[in-house]
Amino acid sequence: MNSEHLADLAALDAWIKKVSAAGAVPILCGENGDMDTVGSAIALAAAIPNGMACGLHRDKVAKRVAENLDAPFRYLDRKRPTLPRKLGGVICVDAASPEQLGLELPNGIPICVIDHHSTSGWNLDSGDIEIRWAMRATTQIIFAYLQEYCPVALTEPVRKLLLAGLITDTGRFRHADGQALLDGAQMLEGGEIDYASFVELIEVDDLTDSDRGALAAGLSRVKNSTAGSWQLMHTNVSTSEGRMGKVLLVAGAEVALVSRHRDGITRLSARATRNATLSGVHLGEIMSSLAEKLGGDGGGHDGAAGWSGETDRIAAESAFIHSLSGVVRTD
Ligand SMILES: [Mn+2]
């Protein structure tokens, strides 16, 4: 680990000790409730006596894995999030901006952000801290902290939660790097984890009939086009945007754009191949620029990013395509 990361972990540990002495420490997940955010929150809560993982939502994988491990998690109500009265501080994991939490943070409470997205929409005060590392998953940052400061918390269930976040955020290690592979191997160490059967638990296919219907309808609307020098496929679906994005990449898109419009809110979700990101595409930057132009909230990684806001779906898609067209191919 480099010295900057070690200094970050020391600052994080000091912050946690200080705020947990003052009151409860909710650890808030990003609104998407994916395995990385939920796994990070629950694993970190294991090291903080009055810490509790909470969030608005858990996706199917996160719910299944956490329930299988009997891991403690508290659901919050979007309109009336009931946080403990005596708060020491709030930790937000795997959220690139406060909007990605989907709820208002209480005023005047110290905030800690732990995240691996390359864009940041946080405006922090003194007393707050932000730990942002260029890792493949937020669970890698939590793992580094637990290894240094609370190794007893690295029980088998906690290792599984960390590993599950890393497996899902790297697309089963397809988008891993050396550090991610090393961390994955170290998460397995010591615990009695049977890797292959654990991956099966994560991969159980639990699409419902209505998910399949939504995907089939989305497939019938797929458009194949060229945006500048990029091969783009795009469509809109009512659910399962993530799955549809993967399908479009398998079908040969360099960039996949999937949109959804519901209750007056448009959501764009984009995926790019590794080759496209190496040749200059950074979807997180495109989505951030969309948020500047259209309002709403956007950001993410080079190969996977999203935007949401009140703009009409077609206008939002056009803005994305326009922005992608302007990206110069560097290879
Ligand atoms: Mn993540």
* pLDDT < 50 runs, ≥5 residues: none
List the total number of helices: 12
The top-level CATH class of the largest domain is Alpha Beta
Biggest β-sheet, characterized? Answer: 6 strands, parallel
Shape estimate: globular
Provide the spatial order of strands within the biggest beta sheet: 3-2-1-4-5-6
Number of strands: 12
Topology of helices and strands:
Elements: H1 3-22, E1 25-29, H2 35-45, E2 51-55, H3 60-68, E3 74-75, E4 90-93, E5 111-115, E6 129-132, H4 138-149, H5 156-169, H6 178-188, H7 195-203, H8 209-220, E7 223-227, E8 230-236, H9 241-250, E9 255-262, E10 265-272, H10 274-278, H11 283-294, E11 297-300, E12 304-309, H12 313-325
Parallel strand pairs: 1-2, 1-4, 2-3, 4-5, 5-6, 8-9
Antiparallel strand pairs: 7-8, 9-10, 10-12, 11-12
Bound molecules: manganese (II) ion.
Manganese (II) ion is lined by residues 36, 94, 116, 137-138, 169.
